[in-house]
Amino acid sequence: MQTRIEQARQGVVTDEVRAVARDEGVDAESLAAALACGEVVITRNRRRTDIQPLGIGTNLRIKVNANLGTSRDALDVEREIRKAKAALEAGADTVMDLSTGGSLADIRGRLMDAVHLPMGTVPVYEAAARAMDRGSSFCEMTEDDLFAVIADHLRQGVDFLTVHCGVTLRTLELMERQGRLLDVVSRGGALLIAWMRYHECENPLYTQFDRLLDLAREADATLSLGDGFRPGATADATDRAQVHELILLGELQARALERGVQVMIEGPGHVPMDQIQANVLLEKRLCRNAPFYVLGPLVTDRAPGYDHITGAIGGALAGWAGADFLCYVTPAEHLGLPDEEDVRAGVIASRIAATAAELARGRPGSREAEQAMSRCRKALDWEGMFRHALDPRRAEAVRGKAPPGDENVCSMCGEFCAVKIQREMKRSGRQTP
């Protein structure tokens, strides 16, 4: 069976491509061409019929992902379902199940049933968890164990997989030679490095990349090539290990495209503001404009409890520079498992970043949406303002906490409201109050 890429290369514009084009307001033939050359992916496992196809990449709206999942210290599946629904309500485009505790296949299935959004996973987590469930160290998982989990996830309908194929012995050597303040902070990257050291051999996701392509091709799922050496401290940004891994991912992306397999590239991480544009440019040049999926980036290490803000600042800059997909960061980042309000705050913060970036990039419709809000403000049309707000619920709640005496204004300026004064001046024909 042909994959989406192969159909697009033959000039076939499928109903799926047309549906994405309608949603995005772009030309279907141009979208198919971008899909054919790897600049766009459509994240829907061919086994899923319960979700709409979602396009990510060049000339498309910047998408937002929300991470969910249990841990061995927090096994409340119902809470994860509530969090998934909160992410959906806040406007997330995708969710990733990063669960490591409990019956993982069941949790995945329940989350997929609860929110009909494209779902991503990191299969190495489950491979490690299965080894530990057998009473072994996670380092004792076998190569076949890892690929069996990947196959299980794809059979269940997972739409995109984070696979850390660029975590190699050579990349590890480069990191150790240069030195890092915080070494490796990627959970998947750390698991694979520990496994490689234990077995004294190379990463099977790298050496058996063709085996991975066979599995992804069968499901027409997207491979999200993970950044196991992403910087976890601003001091480590854009170092040899990070850039070497990105070079490898670009080479693997080319091999995937030859096989008709869709690929995204994952990016940092903790990055100072002055390096974000360069990081996006590197990815776009080294990976032939593949969709770029960034975590944040977080622009300072010093704001625990507020990392949804540091991530939104970095996300806005990355989106403006050309990133295509923002992984949210919640206020609980670096501190603990997020709750529903953390999830909601993280999604909204990333959506604000995406909206700001699209306005700066001149995406069609962005300026009109901004002006619609401004017109409502000029008219003191509060219902209209709520309607155009990225988070209407929050806007209404804040206004309701301190209701003004005059319902036309807010309680901050009251009778000194600048907009009201200007309106009254124009009505009376006077130039001064």
Question: What's the short version?
Answer:
The protein has 433 residues and is an alpha/beta fold. It folds into 3 domains: 1-37, no CATH class; 46-51 and 59-361, Radical SAM ThiC family, central domain (TIM Barrel); 366-428, no CATH class. The protein has 19 helices and 10 strands.
What does this structure look like?
The structure is a single chain. The protein has an 8-stranded parallel β-barrel with strand order 3-4-5-6-7-8-9-10, surrounded by 6 helices. Strands 1-2 form a two-stranded antiparallel ribbon. It is globular and about 80 Å long. α13 links the parallel β8 and β9. The chain has 433 residues and is an alpha/beta fold. It starts with a helix and ends in a 5-residue tail after the last helix. α16 runs antiparallel to α17. The protein contains 19 helices and 10 strands. The mean pLDDT is 96.
State the strand order across the main sheet. Answer: 3-4-5-6-7-8-9-10
Helix content: 40-55%
What number of domains? 3
The low-confidence parts are none
What is the CATH top level name of the largest domain?
Alpha Beta
Order of helices and strands: HHHEEEHEHEHHEHHHHEHEHEHEHHHHH
Look up the CATH topology of the largest domain. TIM Barrel
Global structural class? alpha/beta
| β-sheet strand percentage | 5-15%
Q: Average the pLDDT over all residues and give the rounded result.
A: 96
Termini, distance in Å?
73 Å
SS elements, strand count: 10
